[in-house]
Design a protein that fits this description.
Length: 314
């Protein structure tokens, strides 16, 4: 069996349909279909069941896919071993990171990684979508979500603390909210999901002796929204309203007193509660990718900001 034909078959299954595979391989859909049909005729079996939007391996195709992934992984490992003998670590990694996190925390870490491994090529995409890693040809993605998709391997980096805050000048003119529902009385500056209402959830302990956790939710309509946390932070510092940010985006301003934290007895959640590193299952990881994954996990967990624990009520 031709190795290129095997690689094309594996890429089709990974992509989920012929059109996505054609885009990834920079081929026409007709050409991909032709080579797949030629492989099936050579083997004398049907490998994929086709619909207009999706392909699904037959039992024989599923077995060939698993063997093909292993074979291609071993070939890639052998090529990497030969190419790196006597050389510094080399390779190419495409990394997708959220815009705000990328600017505030990841930029210096990625510069540090490049200084340590200058011959590894990094392609860094700033993107907030939860997209298909295969169709985007992304090896590693960092995302703030509550539950990772089942289709990926997810490594948790840390919990995300969300902060409601405002400037002392704004709070001098506008009474600070005491309940989560009080946010509806203020101008809100925050990122907002596309085509959806912004829902802020919060939990807090109630009861002096037998404490119980109470969950609340409020639907908000930001008066200013953007995917760029740096812009939103400037707007809140300019007195345009109350902001809702992840702790990593406003830690320095909270420490200096430029921003005042509010509703501190709540555990706030807006878009996601944890930072995950996402990779594809069954995709061979080059040595460069493995080094980047290990580096980011170690370095991010070492500097990941968290709020101090709230003492339990007596």
């Amino acid at each position: 069996m031709d190795l290129n034909a095997l690689r094309l078959f594996v890429d089709i299954v990974d992509a989920g349909n012929l059109s996505a595979a054609a885009r990834k391989l920079k081929m026409t859909r007709a050409n991909v279909s032709y080579h797949l049909k030629a492989l099936e005729e050579e083997l004398g079996v049907q490998l994929l069941r086709r619909t207009t939007r999706h392909v699904e391996p037959t039992p024989v195709g599923a077995g060939l896919y698993e063997h093909g992934r292993n074979i291609l992984g071993e070939v890639a490992a052998a090529n990497a071993l030969i190419s790196n003998m006597g050389k510094s670590l080399q390779g190419h990694v495409r990394l997708s990171v959220p815009t705000g996190l990328g600017h505030t925390m990841l930029s210096p870490l990625l510069v540090q990684f490049k200084l340590r491994y200058p011959d590894i090529t990094l392609d860094v995409v700033f993107d907030n979508r939860i997209h298909n890693l295969v169709s985007e040809d992304v090896e590693v993605a960092l995302r703030i979500i509550s539950t990772p998709p089942d289709s990926v391997v997810a490594t948790e980096i840390g919990e995300v603390d969300w902060i409601v805050c405002g400037t002392p000048a704004y709070l001098a003119a506008h009474p600070a909210p005491r309940e989560l529902s009080g946010l509806k009385d203020h101008a809100i500056v925050c990122a907002s999901p596309v085509g959806q209402k912004l829902k802020a959830s919060g939990t807090r302990e109630q009861g002096q002796h037998a404490a119980r956790e109470v969950r609340e939710q409020v639907v908000l309509e930001p008066t200013l929204s953007s995917e760029n946390f740096a812009f939103l932070k400037d707007a809140v510092l300019g007195g345009l309203g109350l902001g809702i940010f992840p702790l990593y985006a406003v830690g320095a301003e909270l420490e200096s007193g430029a921003l005042v934290p509010l509703l501190t007895d709540y555990r706030i959640s807006v878009f996601g509660s944890r930072l995950y590193m996402l990779t594809m299952p069954n995709r061979y990881q080059t040595l460069a990718t493995r080094y980047l994954v290990t580096f980011l996990k170690t370095e991010l967990q070492a500097v990941w900001p968290r709020l101090p624990a709230t003492p339990a009520p007596r």
